[in-house]
Design goal:
Layout: H1 16-22, H2 37-49, E1 63-64, E2 76-89, E3 92-97, E4 101-106, E5 125-135, E6 138-142, E7 149-151
Parallel strand pairs: 1-2, 4-6
Antiparallel strand pairs: 2-3, 2-5, 3-4, 5-6, 5-7
Helix pairs in contact: 1-2
């Protein structure tokens, strides 16, 4: 997109992105590979669990798959569901949430998603982030990076 991504530090040496995530005033979003994505995702998840900052408001909370509607079409959303199945179809591996919501993982990059595609993922709650599409009578998000899928509870 022709923009510069940077890390900002305060005069005290505090990473600004880290502080915003910890206080619940930012969302971890990966635009390219960088070494801190797992740390940022964990900080966001902790803030979400604690209902810190913006996460205390319903508009910022992940939506249940059953709550997705026409107003969400083509919008960037966080969606919560339980993994009920996997499916291989076309160029995607599909993670199916709540039997009715599809998360597309490109087969070409599926090796990056090994934690998500493991059998112990079945029946686990996840939060998926991305742009919502409605295609073939199904709601779906196509993911490009593992940071877009996070488990809600440890195994």
């Amino acid at each position: 997109y022709g923009r510069t991504l940077a890390y900002v530090f305060t005069a005290d040496g505090l990473l600004l992105q880290q502080a915003l995530l910890q206080q619940g005033f930012a969302m971890a979003r990966v635009y390219q590979e960088h070494p801190f994505w797992e740390c940022f995702a964990e900080l966001e998840q902790q803030a979400r669990t604690q209902n810190a900052g913006l996460w205390q408001f319903e508009d910022y909370a992940p939506k249940a798959t059953s709550a997705i509607g026409q107003q969400d079409l083509n919008q960037y959303r966080l969606v919560r569901g339980v993994v009920t199945d996997f499916e291989r179809k076309g160029q995607y591996l599909w993670l199916i949430l709540d039997d009715n919501f599809y998360v597309g993982i490109p087969q070409a990059g599926s090796g990056n998603f090994s934690k998500v595609l493991a059998l112990n993922s079945l029946k686990r709650a996840v939060v998926v982030r991305g742009k919502l599409y409605f295609s073939y009578k199904k709601w779906q998000i196509i993911v490009s990076h593992p940071s877009q899928i996070s488990f809600e509870n440890p195994p």
